């Protein structure tokens, strides 16, 4: 298991109730991942990117040969951090799959600035700019229905089709048991 050391220490200190033991007692091997450089684990390379979220958050980029998967949860892009957009685009660059925090529609995001989550539309904008093949929408508000998730995917497809009519980027709703074939 690979975790960011500061997050593990914070979680174990009691500020986040994730573990019922001190991480030093674990039989797992914890590795500090320096955001300034990538890390190799056998055939895999992992990079991390600090993101905008209350209490911090990190995106993870997993590379194996020519395949790239990016996990980007708990991130908000708004007028206060436009300077971070280029870094995110480069981090997502040419990924096969990006899972993106798409908790809100654009309208909802405007009403929840500084809550630490993004909109479907900003995820699609970033993914398109980065040349991403598939975007998996996830980190839904836990109170929304399956019908709302279907609506969010429709909003995403409509947005992509109107702004980027030549795009072949696939927009996929995350769900339990989802398997994405290469």
Throw out a few tags for this protein.
single chain, 182 residues, alpha/beta, 5 helices, 7 strands, 21% strand
Could you walk me through the main structural features you see in this protein, from its secondary elements to its overall organization?
By secondary structure, this protein is α/β, with parallel strands linked by helices. The protein has helices at 5-12, 85-92, 106-110, 120-130, 146-163; strands at 39-41, 44-51, 57-64, 67-72, 97-101, 134-138, 170-173. α2 crosses α4 and α4 crosses α5. The radius of gyration is 17 Å and the shape is globular. The mean pLDDT is 82.
Layout of strands and helices, then pairs:
Blueprint: H1 5-12, E1 39-41, E2 44-51, E3 57-64, E4 67-72, H2 85-92, E5 97-101, H3 106-110, H4 120-130, E6 134-138, H5 146-163, E7 170-173
Helix pairs in contact: 2-4, 4-5
Sum up the overall morphology in one term.
globular
For the sheet with most strands, the description reads: 7 strands, mixed
Return the structural class.
alpha/beta
**Count of individual domains:** 2
Q: Please compute the radius of gyration using only Cα atoms.
A: 17 Å
Low-confidence stretches: none
What name goes with the CATH superfamily of the largest domain?
Answer: Ribonuclease Z/Hydroxyacylglutathione hydrolase-like
Query: Residue share in helices?
Result: 25-40%
CATH topology term of the largest domain:
Metallo-beta-lactamase, Chain A
Which range does the strand content fall in?
A: 15-25%
- What letter string, H or E per element, gives the SSE order? HEEEEHEHHEHE
* Highest-level CATH class of the largest domain: Alpha Beta
Averaged pLDDT: 82
